[in-house]
Fold this sequence. Notes:
The protein is α+β, with helices and mostly antiparallel strands. It has eight helices and eight strands; from the N terminus they run ααααβαββββααβββα. It has helices spanning about 20-30, 45-50, 50-85, 100-110, 140-145, 215-220, 225-230, 265, and strands spanning about 130-135, 155-165, 170-180, 185-195, 200-210, 235-240, 245-250, 255-260. Strands 1-2-3-4-5-6-7-8 form an eight-stranded antiparallel β-barrel. The protein is globular and about 45 Å long. The relative contact order is 0.15. Keywords: Plastid, Transit peptide. This is Plastid-lipid-associated protein 7, chloroplastic.
Amino acid sequence: MATKLVVKPQITVSHLSPPSPNSIEILRSQRNTVSATSPRLNFKKISRFGDWSFAQRTISLNNKAAEQQNVSTDASQIKIELYDALQGINRGIFGASSHKKSEIEELVKQLESQNPTPEPTLSLDKVAGSWKLIYSTISILGSKRTKLGLRDFITLGDLYQNIDISEGKAVIVINFNARGLSLLSGELRIEAIFRIASKSRVDIFYNNSAITPDQLMNVFQKNYDLLLGIFNPEGWLEITYVDENLRIGRDDKGNIFVLERSQEDKL
């Protein structure tokens, strides 16, 4: 049933860790950047030579630069607030309060309004690489969580998405840890094909999947369809925000996904 995939070396399973402190420190330093470093006009010298058209052009360019800097600073501040809001909710996979969801969605909307890449499928190099999920509105609650053993027996580790734009392929890697089996570690890999549908949207088609090792597959065998039903990405995805380190998407089922570029991909 499963097709063996050729992917990156297995990623070590771990509980969700907060975003890299270095990333947040960089954002905070960007927010505190002082605009005083911009070049200043010497109006006495300009008036002496009477080149007011030059002065007007220079003022216009400086104003545009200041506006761009303000947008960047605002986006950095919103990211800091978003990371703060995501603390302690385990990516939202096991639920979050309605107040917390509303807070996160509002911050997501603010970032989307400042998307530096409004036509991401025309700049797929910014989308390529390895991304780690830090928030999703997909949730595993109630009987689903019980059937999958995610209350006590199975621990859900990090979730990654590896995008290969040369092959038009995305591989989702979901890490698990079976505590009752000598801390058996394993993963579910789902391979999907994507095709550009518009300047910001891709259509996604399920290709194949596999759970390794076999012992973990035996654990999920009975509820394998349920597991795939939760994480299967088939449908379409709108890329609503992407920069060097953060990506936001919305799918045809109304879900929101927030991912940060993984540290491995930055090396």
